TrEMBL record:
SUPFAM superfamilies: GST C-terminal domain-like, Thioredoxin-like
Family affiliation: Belongs to the GST superfamily.
Name assigned to this protein: Glutathione S-transferase
Domain GST C-terminal stretches: 86-203
Start and end residues of each GST N-terminal domain: 1-81
Highest taxon listed in the record's lineage: Bacteria
CDD domains: GST_C_Beta, GST_N_Beta
């Protein structure tokens, strides 16, 4: 398999899950400003949507969208504990992925488009805070070790990656103690450390 990624972007979640499963994969870095790969290929020829992640499963067979790639990769887990194979447990993973993708990801993405004035920034922070408050409360009311059950999975990886962006946009995560505790567990995983190192995010 081959993952098209950009350092620290949402594709980092797929990179983490690739490290969790026992498959060989290649990484291809994409410049999201020029939409060229590290070898100068036109990325639109590979993924006409222009964004990362894109997963090449076989030559010419491309899967896009975080909500599709993450469960697809997770189900290749030989330990079978990254995602339940079916039933309500799997639906709960998809529920989290949908929420993170359509709500939290979008709320952060506002800060990565055209520069914002102070009013737009305040509105953007308030929306992120509204969503994080919900997530923090959901974690506090759950007995699970991770978002869905007691096993780390793709929703945890995705929440970790999105909340990394608070640092980039000068947003304060410290009120969200339960999210921070979850982030710490995720950050300690070898798969995460290796992915972040291989993307040049940590030494
Ligand atoms: N709906 C897509 C959105 C992916 C997305 O927003 N990717 C960002 C990086 S986190 C990107 O590549 N932006 C550059 C661009 O859209 O050209 C998904 O969930 O996979």
């Amino acid at each position: 398999m081959k993952l098209y990624y950009s350092p620290g972007a949402c594709s980092l979640a797929s990179h983490i899950i690739l490290n969790e499963i026992n498959v060989d994969f290649d990484l291809v870095r994409v410049d999201l400003k020029t939409h060229k790969t590290e070898k100068g290929a036109d990325y639109y020829e590979i993924n006409p949507k222009g964004y990362v992640p894109a997963l090449e499963i076989n030559p010419g067979l491309i899967l896009t969208e975080n909500v599709a790639i993450l469960p697809f990769l997770a189900q290749h887990d030989p330990k079978q504990d990254l995602i339940p194979p079916s039933g309500l447990g799997r639906a709960k993973v998809l529920e989290w992925l949908g929420y993170l993708n359509s709500e939290l990801h979008d709320a952060y993405a506002v800060f990565f488009g055209a520069p914002l004035n102070d009013e737009a920034k305040a509105k953007g922070y308030a929306e992120i805070d509204r969503l994080l408050s919900y997530i923090d409360k959901a974690i506090s009311e759950s007995d699970n070790d991770y978002l869905v059950d007691d096993n780390f999975g793709p929703a945890d990886a995705y929440l970790f990656v999105l909340t990394n962006w608070s640092n980039l946009i000068h947003h304060d995560l410290t009120p969200y103690k339960n999210i921070i505790a979850l982030r710490n567990k995720v950050a300690a995983r070898q798969s995460v450390q290796i992915a972040m190192r291989d993307e040049g995010l940590i030494p």
